[in-house]
Known about the structure:
Blueprint: H1 3-14, H2 19-29, H3 33-38, H4 40-44, H5 47-51, E1 56-65, E2 71-82, E3 88-94, H6 100-116, E4 123-128, H7 137-151, E5 160-164, H8 170-184, H9 208-223, E6 232-236, H10 240-251, E7 255-261, E8 264-267, H11 274-283, E9 299-301, E10 314-317, H12 326-334, E11 339-341, H13 350-358, E12 362-364, H14 366-369, H15 372-386, H16 392-416, H17 423-441
Parallel strand pairs: 3-4, 3-5, 6-7, 6-10, 10-11, 11-12
Antiparallel strand pairs: 1-2, 2-4, 7-8, 8-9
Helix pairs in contact: 1-2, 2-6, 6-17, 7-8, 9-10, 9-15, 9-16, 10-11, 12-13, 15-16, 16-17
Amino acid sequence: xxxxxxxxxxxxxxxxxxxxxxxxxxxxxxxxxxxxxxxxxxxxxxxxxxxxxxxxxxxxxxxxxxxxxxxxxxxxxxxxxxxxxxxxxxxxxxxxxxxxxxxxxxxxxxxxxxxxxxxxxxxxxxxxxxxxxxxxxxxxxxxxxxxxxxxxxxxxxxxxxxxxxxxxxxxxxxxxxxxxxxxxxxxxxxxxxxxxxxxxxxxxxxxxxxxxxxxxxxxxxxxxxxxxxxxxxxxxxxxxxxxxxxxxxxxxxxxxxxxxxxxxxxxxxxxxxxxxxxxxxxxxxxxxxxxxxxxxxxxxxxxxxxxxxxxxxxxxxxxxxxxxxxxxxxxxxxxxxxxxxxxxxxxxxxxxxxxxxxxxxxxxxxxxxxxxxxxxxxxxxxxxxxxxxxxxxxxxxxxxxxxxxxxxxxxxxxxxxxxxxxxxxxxxxxxxxxxxxxxxxxxxx
Length: 445
């Protein structure tokens, strides 16, 4: 058994019942064999054994009172995975599916994603099994305040800087920041990112992950002589990432024909009206079936997974982990998909990715393609440190440059290790080497 296989096996044994974490570890480590062949010092320093073990895993009780005066109890988490190149950085997810396995997979992925941005930020992830859907603003506020009562002991602008993720938008970040400020009796703007513009937030942060996904996709297509204009696009999800990926794709001339939420998907043959989606999701907090009121030609289907049966040139999974399995990948390939770029975290299973690669589908892995959000969070941290606020155009220009650089750096890493066109391996290698070298320099800690 190879060194990599041994580490993967030991990790699975030490972390039973955590399939998402196992999947992420296997996906990353299996790409690193050629690197370890040329860098024996990584093995001698037990780099792999160390990098799969979080620095710390924090689990805590979150009690809060609902609108009926009843006490509710949720579980809160923060997994601080690796700070070799900078303070811990990663989102907070509020969703009933949240558990330690999911947060460890997300935190592990975040190490390499953050490394690829070239910004000095480490990897972490956190959240709770609290579901903000259907809750009043008062209930969400009381939960966020209780959550921050414990989280505040473990974060700071030079220690750990959380941001938003699924279920955590500007409303939730605002409540958490207000409570942190109250607890600490000081104004530390850099402790959270994704803040409102009136109290230290960055222009273009809302759009960043979706826009960044399209900037990466555009560069990947351009490198192969393909124009995004007039291409048919299917986007899963209808949250922040999906909405702004749709908006930017349309600005560049693509035709987005389908979007989804957990209740199903809408098919709009004439193209999605993104302003209608924004009204439904960002203002009304409604379900995607309501889109039919805005577009009489659209159709609604109540199985969100079936969105991958829609014929398209480009597929952008922007909903959640493992939403594209092997059968979904087969459908996309049979329907002539030419490119898949991941807007969500690990939305394609390992077998689905192998199918895409085997069939010469251009594949942009999540840790590279959706790095625009955390990259702009890093830019928000820079603005907070300098007490400055850049224009939308300035932030967007920097974001575009970061995403173009990420594409070319992972392509180069793949070529350096004789894995041309395997951008997933290139992303894993490029992200890993920077962190590994920092860990070597800092000793066995």
